[in-house]
């Protein structure tokens, strides 16, 4: 009745090939999605999240972002100059950071007045010719020199670089 067996066979072969192609594409898509949505992706996501947090936190001040309360303290060992007390027995080792304001040559050393916007302190060091205005970091022992004058104590604290 007008159904050509060759046309029917051709249609069935085309349908079978299309079905095979669709099945192959779905299999490939599922295998690539297994990588994206499988259990192993959890490690990639966690690693990426940690990488992003570390990268973003290195770009800013952690104290202002609220992360300093987590026990992470960066730059915590730099002591503001205003917190260094003029005690005779105070010989703690501290780090200070600031700008060189003045310099004075000594016999075999140099003395630099450092300003960190909280105060000023003199630092005695072997470093020569630090330019005024340069940013520096020193590690040293806090020293106190007593200068009694007319019944008054005019002592001065200074830092001796280690």
Secondary-structure topology with pairs:
Layout: H1 5-37, H2 41-57, H3 62-65, E1 93-105, E2 110-115, E3 120-125, E4 135-145, E5 148-149, E6 152-153, E7 156-161
Parallel strand pairs: 3-7
Antiparallel strand pairs: 1-2, 1-4, 2-3, 4-7, 5-6
Question: What does this entry show, briefly?
Answer:
The protein is built from three helices and seven strands, in the order αααβββββββ.
- Helix content percent band: 25-40%
N to C succession of SSEs: HHHEEEEEEE
The span between the termini is 108 Å
Shape: rod-shaped
Report the C-alpha radius of gyration, rounded.
Answer: 36 Å
Q: Strands across the major sheet, in which order?
A: 1-2-3-7-4
Task: Please characterize this protein's 3D structure.
- The chain is built from three helices and seven strands, in the order αααβββββββ.
- The strands form two sheets. A five-stranded mixed β-barrel has the order 1-2-3-7-4. Strands 5-6 form a two-stranded antiparallel sheet.
- The model is unreliable at 61-74 (pLDDT under 50).
- The chain is of the alpha+beta class and 162 residues long.
- Strand 1 and strand 2 form a beta hairpin.
- It has helices at residues 5-37, 41-57, 62-65, and strands spanning 93-105, 110-115, 120-125, 135-145, 148-149, 152-153, 156-161.
């Amino acid at each position: 009745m007008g159904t050509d067996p060759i046309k029917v066979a051709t249609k069935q072969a085309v349908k079978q090939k299309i079905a095979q192609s669709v099945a192959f594409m779905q299999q490939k898509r599922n295998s690539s999605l297994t990588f994206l949505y499988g259990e192993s992706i959890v490690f990639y996501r966690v690693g990426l999240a940690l990488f992003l947090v570390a990268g973003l936190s290195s770009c800013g001040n952690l104290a202002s972002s609220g992360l300093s309360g987590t026990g992470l303290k960066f730059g915590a060992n730099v002591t503001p100059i205003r917190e260094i007390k003029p005690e005779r027995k105070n010989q703690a080792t501290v780090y200070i950071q600031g700008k060189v304001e003045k310099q004075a040559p000594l016999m075999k050393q140099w003395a630099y007045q450092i300003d960190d916007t909280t105060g000023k302190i003199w630092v005695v060091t072997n470093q020569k010719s630090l330019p005024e205005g340069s940013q520096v970091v020193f590690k040293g022992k806090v020293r106190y020199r007593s200068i009694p004058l007319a019944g008054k104590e005019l002592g001065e604290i200074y830092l001796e670089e280690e």
